[in-house]
């Protein structure tokens, strides 16, 4: 059953005894949970008739015992199971033991007065397990998987339109790049943008720049840009900001190394006549990263790229061996590279 259809059914009171919400899209997960709480159990009865059980912390039996209990002063109970690692091939967290056979029995004869919702934040279940097969047979499957980039963009664009706001094409593209097409991040950041643009309903690129933070890799991209321009002041400025955000110097340097490795690969492939789509296939990375790399190397030569890469390799070695203070090794590299 599709996500939108099943949520609509829940709101109409057309409830199923068991739901399996499978997927990793946090926005859908949170919305589905809120919908179940609001429409299944009246707010005044939730303290008595809602049970939420994290399988990382409590045994499965505690949730099933609750599910088999009669509701207190109400028509039904809602039992939510979180993090059911026993449905996957992953190693369970903690030392909690789960009586999976009890769940297998329950699935075939669920309580008439209980709605059991199993939130499985995984891409897939281990279909070799009997309990997984029974779940797919007896539960209503609700897909809460992460959207592909194009679908996420359409969803967010519709959300902007439905809310009565506008973005020009350049701003929309910049917004999607800043959030890396993440639906959950986009929904969260739109709340701030809607508030900022509430007077004229026009969201500008400046608003996106000011209000939507760059993630670590986007900051690294900026550092790479300034390294190649030999702009030590700006490169070091962003680097120090990352240190203030408690990012580890070795981690930052490792990502920088990876980015320069990519730039060198793209540079060499371009010299051999490869086009961007072919580069993406050869390197097995997203085409957008190839596009950005091509933009960065447009005015570069191979020698400068290799000098930067080797300098960062030396910087990493010094960080790992304790040769000097690791927090300042990148700054020393940048000052030296700027003079080459």
Automatic annotation (TrEMBL):
It catalyses: DNA(n) + a 2'-deoxyribonucleoside 5'-triphosphate = DNA(n+1) + diphosphate. This is DNA polymerase III subunit delta. The keyword Transferase applies. Its EC number is 2.7.7.7. It comes from Jeotgalibaca porci. Belongs to the DNA polymerase HolA subunit family. Pfam families: DNA_pol3_delta, DNA_pol3_delta_C. GO terms for cellular component: DNA polymerase III complex. InterPro entries: DNA_pol3_clamp-load_cplx_C, DNA_pol3_delta-like_C, DNA_pol3_delta_N, DNA_polIII_delta, P-loop_NTPase. The lineage of its organism: Bacteria, Bacillati, Bacillota, Bacilli, Lactobacillales.
